[in-house]
Amino acid sequence: QVQLVESGGGLVQPGGSLRLSCAVSRIFFRFTSMGWYRQAPGNQRELVAAATSAGTTKYADSVKGRFTISRDNTKNTVHLQMNSLKPEDTAVYFCNADPAFDDWGQGTQVTVSS
């Protein structure tokens, strides 16, 4: 059973930045494509960024140019640098494989508000 522990969320003003981190265990991390997902109240969970084991990345159009996903295969961690945050980025953020496993972590809340 995969273990996913997200951290780094918080309250930030519009235009601010946050860096999310996720510690992953119990999978062959270095061979697994990993992603960051988010879910806002009343919305479905969506994939916002993903990185393959080789480092190829993809982004949702809504975050392209503002968010950067990275991974450290030596530490089994994946990060999401979020810049120029907007109120519509407010959501609970989760990491998981891409495509996702059935098991999810607790997520980390990101609130963008003045």
Radius of gyration: 13 Å
Most strands sheet: 6 strands, mixed
Shape: globular
Decide which structural class fits the backbone: mainly beta
Stretches where pLDDT is under 50 for at least 5 consecutive residues are none
Main sheet: which strands, in order across?
2-10-9-4-5-6
Helix content: under 10%
Which band does the percent of strand residues land in? over 45%
Report the mean per-residue pLDDT as an integer: 95
Write down the secondary-structure element order. Answer: EEEEEEEEEE
Give the termini separation. Answer: 39 Å
Number of helices: 0
The tally of beta strands, per DSSP, is 10
Task: Summarize the structure in words.
0% of the residues lie in helices and 48% in strands. It contains no helices and 10 strands. Strands 2-10-9-4-5-6 form a 6-stranded mixed sheet, with no helix packed on it. A 4-stranded antiparallel sheet has the order 1-3-8-7, with no helix packed on it. A hairpin with a 6-residue loop joins strand 4 and strand 5 (46-51). It starts with a strand and ends with a strand.
Summarize the structure.
By secondary structure, this protein is an all-beta fold.
Provide the descriptors you would attach to this structure in a database record.
10 strands; 4-stranded antiparallel sheet; single chain; 114 residues; 0% helix; 6-stranded mixed sheet; mainly beta
